[in-house]
Each structure stands twice: as structure tokens, then as C-alpha cells.
Amino acid sequence: xxxxxxxxxxxxxxxxxxxxxxxxxxxxxxxxxxxxxxxxxxxxxxxxxxxxxxxxxxxxxxxxxxxxxxxxxxxxxxxxxxxxxxxxxxxxxxxxxxxxxxxxxxxxxxxxxxxxxxxxxxxxxxxxxxxxxxxxxxxxxxxxxxxxxxxxxxxxxxxxxxxxxxxxxxxxxxxxxxxxxxxxxxxxxxxxxxxxxxxxxxxxxxxxxxxxxxxxxxxxxxxxxxxxxxxxxxxxxxxxxxxxxxxxxxxxxxxxxxxxxxxxxxxxxxxxxxxxxxxxxxxx
Amino acid sequence: xxxxxxxxxxxxxxxxxxxxxxxxxxxxxxxxxxxxxxxxxxxxxxxxxxxxxxxxxxxxxxxxxxxxxxxxxxxxxxxxxxxxxxxxxxxxxxxxxxxxxxxxxxxxxxxxxxxxxxxxxxxxxxxxxxxxxxxxxxxxxxxxxxxxxxxxxxxxxxxxxxxxxxxxxxxxxxxxxxxxxxxxxxxxxxxxxxxxxxxxxxxxxxxxxxxxxxxxxxxxxxxxxxxxxxxxxxxxxxxxxxxxxxxxxxxxxxxxxxxxxxxxxxxxxxxxxxxxxxxxxxxxxxxxxxxxxxxxxxxxxxxxxxxxxxxxxxxxxxxxxxxxxxxxxxxxxxxxxxxxxxxxxxxxxxxxxxxxxxxxxxxxxxxxxxxxxxxxxxxxxxxxxxxxxxxxxxxxxxxxxxxxxxxxxxxxxxxxxxxxxxxxxxxxxxxxxx
Lengths: 284, 434
Fold this sequence. Notes:
The structure holds two protein chains of two kinds.
Chain A: H1 8-36, E1 37-38, E2 41-42, H2 45-51, H3 54-85, H4 92-100, H5 107-118, H6 123-130, H7 146-175, H8 178-186, H9 191-219, H10 223-229, H11 236-245, H12 250-274
Antiparallel strand pairs in A: 1-2
Chain B: H1 2-24, E1 39-44, H2 50-68, E2 71-76, H3 79-92, E3 99-103, H4 104-112, H5 131-137, E4 138-139, E5 142-143, E6 146-158, H6 171-176, H7 183-197, E7 202-203, H8 212-225, H9 235-247, H10 262-266, E8 272-276, H11 277-286, E9 291-294, E10 303-313, H12 321-331, H13 334-344, H14 351-355, H15 361-373, E11 378-381, H16 390-406, H17 411-428
Parallel strand pairs in B: 1-2, 1-3, 7-8, 10-11
Antiparallel strand pairs in B: 3-10, 4-5, 6-8, 6-9, 6-10
């Protein structure tokens, strides 16, 4: 079998392409069809129905707000942690292990762990009551305490998902050649200058990947919110799930899925456009 | 190089093959066997979760085969799939289903479509069906199904809570469900508990997967208005919502995140809770001495509660009716019924079985359930069978709850807005408003 070598790359991506076509493309087309047709005809009725439901706008608002609070905090925290760990000290390996443990825990399990810690009879309240800091337990859960539920979700997400950002950033840090830093040191650059002029610019590709991964996952946030706040804090994935499983509104659920997909695509594109990775050698 | 391409090609083919076969290979093709060995097809919307399915296949059906020599093909199926398949088979006249198990509402619908045999003439020895179930299984003089399993929703009380009973209410009143055990007494009790312990001690499963809507349409609505939906926007309903808003001050606020009350009871976050028997079973099992199961309180119109009944019915022109009847006989034997309660937590429908339950946590549960069923002021509610629209029905109650109790909107405005929507659902389905 003799094949023109220029076709080879296409053959090589064929399996991945087929995979995407069946497992992403087909459901996507199906979702578009379910969302925009009624009795076989094009219709915007479902879109209208979804967009007039106050739950939809709440869900959109909370999903974006949660991402807006959680993702930047995670990246900042991860950079600080990675910088702290990226040096030689006793117990370095243990510290890295400890920091990455939450990576292995599913979001539902993380939700349950934080639920039992923060519940009125949980660890935190017991501790504060016993040392006499408070007289009544602090309520974190329930519709009346939505701002506290929000806080609980942020805490749980920071704990659970900062480690993935941390791992990516740490890997990025370790790839930065010491020659640059040593050279800068020779020219008298202090720690902050080195950080600002060398480390952060060279970390940009890692930060970009971490941001993309975390933001896309943040659009799909589900398990933790579902456990800690139920529908008190509506989120896009949760509402889509509720519409599908409880109300059997496949069309509305499709709109939710498409909104999540749309948001992810737009945000991903924005990151790629505005966060061009920089390479010192290339910069003229 | 060409070998690599060949490999990629094979990979694509394998992938395609897997997908195609996965998509169209799942269809089931069953045909009645004509050999001596009879296999009957039993389609059930009940006992579908894997562990319950395993119990049916590995225990019940194995024992049935040992006793009767009949093989049973147990097919767990959703209600909508069952309805579609039954309709298709009855219309073409090629019936392959020998036995169906579904909830009262579904079987009622199948009967209205004339898809079920009349079971009137047949008798089952050595058992007495509880009269309420017997009554519901007979529709217009036709015995539509044999009551098989039941479930309900009850209140669970942590025994410590009895120390804070309001004046005039005794533990016996609560356990037996007397006149005095009403919604006002519950309010007083919940208030006492909050004042004494500093924390709200009443809990409801008001989370997204919780069953609070059943409490609303099947318990408090019938208790206050006499009906589940008919008086949804009546003045009595407004009074009921005002009551519920007042009661909510003494309800643990985290209720809106709870899907099942077993865990909060075990963790000691609440002392009083309402939920489905299956969802509090774990609390009773881990701590049978700590908790009692009691009837729900009554309201001005009586003691509203839901009875969930699953029945067994034989489709019209089913190929193996005698064998199916033998299976019904086996499944409703008191011993089998106790076994079902022990393994999957559904309650018996025959009186002999209740007496045969060994003492322990299940006895605690069964006693509460029996006490509730036996209350003289019972207003029994059946979950309406609205098929796919069922979600919209329950969502309307949940929305009303959220807007009135949680967001503090005016109850009259909300019920006037949602009432017509609920009633329209029943009209669309051509059903009487319950």
C-alpha cells in the first residue's frame, strides 16, 4: 500500500476526529435539534421558555460569579504555593503530596467532606463552640443562608481544585531554566524583579493552560453546589440536570447544555486570543 | 509507514463497530418459548436499582423456580417504556408480556386502555389483603391488579424529643395518631424544641432530589383542604401556607439542601423529620432504640397521607397466564412479603405478613406505618399518574413552596397563579382532579 506522504497527518488524526465526531459532534447536533425544533419544525419557543424562566438567569449569574471568584483565587493561590514549594527544603516531597491529595477526590466526595465540617453540628462549629468563640452554631446551609452557602462552595472548590492548577504551575516553574535567573542575579535583579520580568512571563503558557482548564470546568460546576446548596444557588449544569431528570424537559435541558458549551467555547477562544504565550528568545 | 496507516484504519473500524453495535445492538428480542420449559416475561417498573434487581433475580426468582420449575425473565423497565411496549403489543395482538408490576396510577391507566385481564374470579389461599389496598385494586367492579408492595411517608421522632412535648399532648397521642396529634401540636412541639435546645429540630427533605413535594400535595394539602389539587387556591390553602410559613421558623434551615432525612437524623441535626420510609430506614437500622416511627399529624380536614401501592397485573391475552398467576401467588405469600421488606424495604400488603416481622428496626418501621394506615381520620392520597407531566405537577408545588415560604411572597397571589396550571395538567391528561 503506497500512500502519498502528505495524507499521512490526516490519517493520523482520523481516530481522534472520529472519536470527537461521535462523542461530541453527534450529541451536539442532537442537542441543537432538540433545542430548536418543535414537531420537526424550526422553533424558538424553547429558547423563549428558557430565557423567561428566572431560574435560568440566576443560574447564569451564579455560574459566572462562582467562576469569577474561584478561578482567579485558585490561580493566585497556586502560584504562591508553587513558588513556595519550588525550592530545596526538608519535607518538600511530603508537602507536594499533601497539596495534591485533593486532586484524587471527586467533587461529590469533597462536597460531603465540607458539608460535614461546616454543618451546625460539624467540626468547625463544635470547635468554635468549645473554645467559646461563639454561643450559637454558624449556619452555612439553607435558603436563608445563601451567602454562606456561596462561601462554603468557594472554600470547598478552592480546597479541591487548586491542586490541579498548582501541579500545572509547578511543572511550568520547574521548566524555567536556571540560566535566566542566574543571569538576572548577576545583573543585580532582586527577587521581585526576577519574578516580574522572568518567572511570570515564562509561566504564561502554564497559567494559560491552567486558566483554560479551570474556567471550562467552572462552567460545568455541579456536584459540589448540588450537595452544599441544592437549588438554593442555581447553576447551569444543575438546572439542566433538574430539567432533564425531574421535569423531563429535554428541550430546555438541551438549551442549558448548549449555553454551557457556548460559554466554554467563547471563554476558551478569548484566553487563547488575549493570552499569547511569550518566549524570551522570540521577543525581538 | 503503510502498516501504521493500516493500524489507524483498523482502529477506526473497531471504534465504528463498537459504536454501531452499541447503538443498535441493545434492543431486546424475546419470543415466547414453545418448548416444555416455560419462561415468563415479567416487566417491572419497581425494584429497578441494581441491588434490588439482584435481590429479585438471585433470591426471589431462584426460590420460585425451585418451587414451581418456572423460569422468569425479569425485565426492569421505566414507566414510559412499559406503556409504549404494552400499547404496541396489545394493538398488534402479539403479546409477549406475561406479568407487569407497576404503581397503582400506572395500572389504573393500563386498565382504562383495556390492556389488563380481570383477576376477579381467582383466589389466593392463606392470606388476607389489607382492605384499603383491596379497595383500590378493584376499579369499576373489575379486579385490576393484586396489591404487591406498599410504601408511605412517615414522621420519625428521636425519643429525646418526647421530653419537650407541648402541654396536653402525650407520647401515646403521637404514637397512635389521636385527635390531639394535629398540625398545631406539631407547631407547638417544634417551637418548644427550638426554645429548649436553641436550634430548630424539625427537618424536611426540601433539597433538589428530596420529596418535599409529596408532603405538600399528599399530606398537608389534603389535611387542610381535603384534596390534593382540587382546592389548591382555596382560602383553606392560603391558611395552610400561612401555617407552613410559621412552622418554617422552627425548621432546620439546611432542609433546603437535604434529599433524605436518614443522615440528618443520625447526625443529630434534627429530632423530628418527615420522609419516605425508604429514606429514613438507615437511621432506624443503625439506631433502633433511639427513634420511633409515628403517624403524621392531622389537619382540619383529617389526616392526609400518601399510600404508594405497587400491584401485579396480567396483560390481556398474555401467553402464560397460569404461570404468571403462580408467580403472583408466590410474590404475595406472607413469607415472601417479609423477605421483600427485609431486603428492599417495601411494606407488605397482606395482614399475615405484618405479624411475621421479627422484632428489631423493621418492626419499629412497620408499627409506625401500620399505626398511620389504621388512623380513623385518614385521608388517603394516591400519587397522581401524569406520566411525563408528573414532574411539572410536583414542580408547581415546589415552586409555590419556594415563593411563599422561602421568598415570603403573598400566598394568595401565588396559588391563584399556579392553581390553574396544576388543574390544566389533569385536564390535558383527561383525568379527574384529585
